[in-house]
Structures are given as structure tokens and as C-alpha cells.
Design goal:
Helix content is 31%, strand content 26%. By secondary structure, it is an alpha+beta fold. Among the domains are: 2-87 and 246-262, Nucleotidyltransferase, domain 5; 93-243, Rossmann fold (3-Layer(aba) Sandwich), CATH 3.40.50; 514-637, Dna Ligase, domain 1 (2-Layer Sandwich); 656-721, no CATH class. A hairpin with a 2-residue loop joins strand 29 (659-667) and strand 30. Helix 10 (289-304) crosses helix 15, helix 11 (394-400) packs across helix 13 (437-462) and helix 16 packs across helix 17.
Amino acid sequence: MASSEDDHSEHHNAEILSIDAGGTMTDTFLMDSNGEFTVGKAKTTPDDESRGFIKSSQDALEDWDLNVEEGFPNLVSTVYSGTAMLNRLVERESEVDVGILITGGMEDTLRMGRGRQSYTGYSYSDRLHVNTHKHPEPLIPRNQIRGVRERIDVKGNTLVPLYEDDVKEGVNDLLDQGVDHIVVMYLHSYKNGEHEHRTLEIAEDIIDDRGMETSVMLSSEYYPTLKESERLNTVTAEAFAAEPSRDQLTNIQKAVDEQGGEVGVRVMASHGGTIDIHANELARTLISGPIGGMIGANYFGEKLDYENLVCTDIGGTSFDMGIIIGNDWQIDYSPEMARLLLSLPMVNMESVGAGTGSYVRVNPTFDKIELGPESAGDQVGVSAVETDVETVTVTDCHVAMGWINPENFLGGDMPIDRDVAEREIKKQIADPLDMGVYEAAQGVIDILESKLRNDLEAVVTGEGYAPSNFKCLSYGGGGPVHTAGYTKDLGFDEVLIPEWAAGFSAFGCGAADYEYRYDQTTSIDIDPDLPMEEAAETAGQELTDVWKNLEQKVEEEFENSNIGRSEIEFQYNILGQYQGQLNSIDIESPVSRVNTPEKLERLIDTFEEGYRRTYSEEARSPELGHTVTQASVRGVRDVVKPEIPTEELQGTEPPEEAFKETREAYWDGEWMETEIYDLHALQPGNEFTGPAVMEGAATTYALPPDCETYLDEHRVHHLSRIE
């Protein structure tokens, strides 16, 4: 655990509790009423995440000499992010059966996907051989999908009426198969949901007559957006993965209640806010942990005046990357998760399957080391003797090289055997490659860091930026041990490592607003030759009506948590383009209504300025007219947020109590005497050169021989190379 202050005798009144249950570890960020914080960690418990939640919370509270029964009653904010929902999609396994009613002729949409979906999750080289790949099983088997004759066109006009007999036959057939949810997705229902709503009426009558409790979910209500494949994937994921996950979230809430907590649990959503566990659209929380890191990074940047950040998060299973420019991030409206394209707004991030738990194997054909993509997850590696892992992991290499103290892993709560790590590395990697044990372990680390470095550079340069324009922020339990390696020679302006890196995503969850967001596809043209007064009465009023409808949905979500409209700040966005273009840009509207010429003109001017910033002044083409392709409304309720520590600078020399020992560690092909420090006993102003290792209960910060570090007044390490 890590604390923002050293005086444990002071009374702490815990206020903010945020949890990030990753694939390997469950991290806790806990802040008291004075803004001081502590971080806790425990193994993730996928079968029942509430157990890992309580244990990790207890680990954090112990730093303040409290237990959960003493700490939970004072909580005013609790935010949780977990992995169970996403795992259901990845593994294609769920506790529920789902049936689908779809426009006739489109019954194979789920299996076919959309073009890009065929190669999501593959590297560029792998995409060249996509025809040889094994495609994942569809979420729903073909026999649980029924076609219904109907057709509405792209303008919302009825071309083929709804054949109600098809609906009745399909519903009865799916009920005979015992489905728990029926998903209804008709083509262009986002424009006109009349057929879906009539289908709902028919289905509910049949369900009532048969005395069943099957629910019916409409794509026009959940995700009314363009692109039928993404929309189908998303509403199906809502039924298949999100709804069963409510049980996990209910267990979390129950755990809080049982320990005396009187606060509702919120969940991190993909668009960057938090929502209630009873929210209508729970699929927005599919991938919440890495999002929490991005939100935390932006909050961190705003508080410390870092406008441009490259965010890097290493856990046991993945390396997640994102870019913040001008204290803002991009939204991806068609993200990929679990090899599915989805239709929901998500903070734009890239993720690769490489983490400290990644399996290490030797390819016998080419005699080379290969990493992952599978991971030991919460089982850590072969050196974790109480687990049944048989394959060497990256963490085992850390242990063998002396970077990680076996007696300090998870603060000593998880037994680690260095001899086992060395024996298995020799057997599985070194001997097949005719290498020494430590040479092989070093090779594994070099390969991992080289991969991460290439991926990171690609993310930055692929967006058209240079690393020198950014500060690189490193966090995650596995981040600090590899930061020096994966940032080497990339030329970042600065490399920053918060002391609370292990719990940074959880910190970000605590820094997120209470927010609901609804989106809807539109096709609103603003003709350039039309007088502004007439355009405001037609296109402007149509956009205003869409916003009003979305605004009402947001308001209803808050009402379920007894939050009135006066407590909500509304924000209005559009996706806009010049008429005839294929791609749109995201614009925050300066007005909430576009029902006057002046307001419409302000919106158009905002779009023009956004287009100029995105492309160039020369690329602007207002003579083409404008099209609004999507409208969005966000409702934000401010909440108590964590404080970033500020302490007085001390001397450059670390205090005596921070020095733990000196031990041999393997660096760049040779054993070196390495100074070992207590990460949390260091004082602001301390600086020193490598080789050194700073040990915390939740993470290890490795400082190679050619590097130096400086701890600032906010307890953030600044890593740099020695010239």
C-alpha cells in the first residue's frame, strides 16, 4: 500500500473509495476528508469480484489503522470498475441465453460482421493472412436468430410494413428455446423505431400469456445509431454480457451495505464519466479500468498544468495507451472490443496483449522467444508457488533478475520462489535456445520493452504527432518496472511516474464526474443557399428536437438516483461534416438550442473553427453546406474528487529510513550492486541515479544504470537518461 503522508497517528475520515478490478489485481484508491490518500491492492477474484473488492479496500484502510467496518460508513463516493463483463465477451460465455429478431434477410449479420471486424485484434502483418485466421464464435448461435419481414429506409419511410405474424412466430420460437432476453434490431430503426416498438407490444403480450419473464430490448431505445452491424453487436452485448454483470455489481453494492456503507456504487463508463449500477445502458461500462486511467491522467494534467500527455498503463494482461491534447481526449464512436465492433462512445485508446503476466514461450520452428498474448492473470507466474501456472511469465523473469523481491510481492501476501523461477526459465527458455538463465530472462525483458516501445511510438506518430510534444505518464502495477525500457530513445519531453501508479486507474475512477450520455444518429442537412432564418426553422429545429429527446433520457437516468434537473449541467455535441463527406468531426456546441438564426450561426462557426484546427484553413469548404450526422447530450453532476498531494521539498539525499538494503541485480548482461529503497519513504526533492529499485507493496520502480530520477512536491517521479 502507498500513502500520501507519513503520520499514521492522525485520524482519517475516509470519503472517496474507487476500485479498479483488473485481470490480475484489484487496486483501491482511498481518500480522506483532508485530501490525503492511500492505495491498496489484492488479487482479483473473477468468480465474485466483491471478495477482491473487500480485501483490496481493507489493504488500503490498514494504512490508516482502520478496517472496512470503520471506514465504509463515512464514504460519500464509491466508484467501481471491473472485468467480468468484458470477459464474457472475450470468452463468448454467459449465464443467459439471448434470442434475436432482425429484419428478414439479415439473419447472418452477427456472423458476418462488418469488414473491419474480420481483422480487429491482429497486427498489420497478421492481417495479410486474415483468410487463414480462426474467427471467434458469434455471441448468439444461428438457431436463436429469427428474421422478420419489414423494411424502413434511411429517411425513416416505411417501405415494407411489419409482418406481425412473423413477429409472433419468432417470439414463440425463441421462448420455446428458453431465452432470457430477446433483442430486436431492425434496419434503420434509429431513424424510425415504429416497427421495433410494435414488436415490443406483441412480444410482451405473448410473454405475459405464457407466464414467462423474458425481457425485450430494442436497438432503437438502447443504441439508436447508424451501422446495423455495430448496433446489433452492442445491443446483443447488452443482453449477453451487461445484464448478467449486474449481479456482480449488485454483490459489490451489497458488500458496501453489509460493512455499514450508505453510498450508492457507481461504475466507470467508456465515455469518461460514471453511471449508476442500475443505469439503462450498462454496456457502456464494458472496458472501464483503462478508461479510468485516462480520466485520471487528464485530471492530473489539469491540476499540475500538463496539457499534452501520452498515457501508458501496464497491468498483468495488457498495455493500454492513449493521448490527451489540450486537456482533452478523442472519442471513438465505433470502438473494437473482444473482436467486435460496437456502437457506443468510448475514450479513444489502443490496447495490446502484453503485460507482466504474459506467457513466455520458445517457438521451436524459428528458435525465438514469443510473448503472449495469453496471460497468467491473477496467477502471476510459475514462481507463485500457490498457483498452478506451468508456463514462465514476464514476472518470473523480473524475479530471477533480482528486480523484484520475492518477499515483497503484494507486500508479502503472495509467496514467490526465486529458485522455481530460475529453474523453469532454464528448462523452458534458456536450454532450448542454448543460453544462460539470466541472459534468457534479460532477452525476454528486452523483447517486451521493444514491443511496447514500437507500439507506443506507432500510437503517437500514427496520430501525426512527435513524442517530443508530450510528457509520458506511466502507471499501472507493471508500469514503473518497465518505464525506463519502453520510453528509451523516444524523445518524450518528460517521463512521469506517480508514486500511486499502481492505483492510478482507480484514482481516475474517483476523479470522474457522475455523468450520463445519450447519442442518436441524424441526417440533418443545412443547405448553404438557404437563408439562415429558414435553416433555423427546419434543420435547426430538427436538431433541437433530437437534443430535447436525448436530454429527457439523461434526466430520467438521474431521476432514478433522486437527482433533480437543477443539479445537472447539460452539454451538447454533434458529429458534423460538409455535405457529401464520409467522415465527421466531434464538436461541442456553444448553444443548447438551435431554434434561432443567431444560434445556428454560432454552431456553424464552431464547426468551421473545429474543422480548421483538425485539417487546415485551406481544407474548409463551407460552400458545400453542412450535415449533422449524430447528436449527443451529456448530463454531468459534479462529485467530490481526490486531491493531488503537495508537500514541502526536502534535500536531494534520500532519508536513512528510505534505504532498505543493497542486493545484486542483473542489468544489461551483468550483475550489479543495486540500492533498494522503500518507495513510499522517499521525500520530495530526493534524487539519485541507477541502478536502483524502489519497492512498494503494490508496485516496483526499476531504475537502470543509465537513468536518474527526481521526486517532486506532488510525489511524482521524473525519470530521465544520463547523458
